[in-house]
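Here is one chain, start to finish.
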Amino acid sequence: MLGPEPVHAFALSFASLHLRMTHVRSYLNLLNFPIDLGGSIRTLLLLGLLAAIQAGVADPRLGGWTLISAQSSLDPPNRLSITPLHDGVHVVMSGETHIDFTANWNGHESSAPGNLAFNQIELRRINKRQAEVKEEKDGTVVATVREKLSNDGNELTTTTATRGHADQITVWTRSGGTKVASDLFAGEWTQDLSKTRLRQGLVLKIESDGSGGIRFLGDFSYTARFDGKQYDLKNSRNDTVTLELVDPHTVDASYRRDDQLTQKDRWVVSAEGQQMTLSTTGTLETGQRVTEKLLFKKQ
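Its structure:
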């Protein structure tokens, strides 16, 4: 009769598969496994082996990465309208963020009802091509926006500073309206998402978390494993992410919001490990369709 040692060894190790068939059947009988060796047990062992492989393979994205090119678009795009008034402007932003306010250029507070993030606004002209906007909520400044026009007046760059967050840069291209000498900011503007991405200087850091998962740090963050489970996101418009290791150079990421699939990313690292391409398709809460192809280089 077989003792407990070989039984225990079989239960804990795949090496016992090399034993003769009669011994294997004896072990199964002793362990009371009602399993046909030619069917379910092979499936279980295969699943276990695949799980072990997934847990043991390193994420090819590990390291620091800097964005070097971007092809990005929103459909429909974000738009900005600036209409000159006698001593101020009327500003309307539509798309991913909705803003609508009227303010004077004198730097004094103006009421701005109907805006989610703020209810007061201060508008100050620095010079002909630069201005500053302070967004306030009940008397407290929540964001400061610096606006700067290009020399030809066809590109507007805004830099938004919010406490506790990195400065956010947005690039707008003039898409309509007549240039007004008294107010060079006046006109219709469309966000150039590709330039916005590049000017933001996106930097990624992806590192091992020391327990079989990875820690992703970028314009949002998460800690996750390649196990098909959903993991929470921080500072993201989405709620969760699920990772899949497609091959040694490719990672797929699926994002969900309110249990609905909203975005899919494919990350491909070059054979020499010095470049990484991110291809993204997704839908924002506003219904806008976003597509991106971003190229990163290893730091």
